[in-house]
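Teaching soon. Got one?

===
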Amino acid sequence: MSLRIVVTVKYVPDATGDRHFADDLTVDRDDVDGLLSELDEYAVEQALQISENSDDDVEITVLTVGPEDAKDALRKALSMGADKAIHVEDDDIHGTDAIGTSLVLAKAIEKAGYDLVISGMASTDGTMGVVPALLAERLGVPQVTLLSEVSVEDGTVKGRRDGDAASENLEASLPAVVSVTDQSGEARYPSFKGIMAAKKKPVESWDLSDLDIEAEEVGLEGAYTTVDNAAERPARTAGTIVKDEGEGGKQLAEFLAGQKFI
């Protein structure tokens, strides 16, 4: 018996860099270094652990949608231990929102073939966290999201979702979509052997025509959501030092009374 796992990953701007919007109010991905989203590393790690703990033959495919440089994210996942990669690249995808992205991913997943889809809990640039649920809806399969622990056994995916007051044990029959949190286990570092092996692993490149998607269904034109305006965050100003000589509490209360809180 074999298990086909597809891990969706995203190439995102480095959070330590100067991130900003381009003139069309999309995220500028040209003037800042990019990398594999840290939250997606947890998804790759969980796929690898499922493979290592399984008696079945497991094939792990990493899938991304993005520009040419997004291959760097795929190479990172391959060097961690994934078997192969798929890169969906098309100029008409530029500006696609989460709903459009879920369409492209779903079509690519169906084309690739799958038993289990694993995603991170959110991307570190958009941080919306809705794509796994959208994927499950488009694929017509169960979703088990925000898991701190995940395993597969006898055609069933099982996991634990940790909340503030309680934990839930969940399961779903395969095929299914799951997402994992940053509490699911530290992602491994690629070894030198893994980095060298990744150079020989297959990376397929697909465009919209390969997925039977019309340009009007994605991109800025097909987006259900748009950014109306954007402004840089104001620079931080110097704080106020309060010397407590018996009136510190009063001064603090007066300061807070004059602030506006959302």
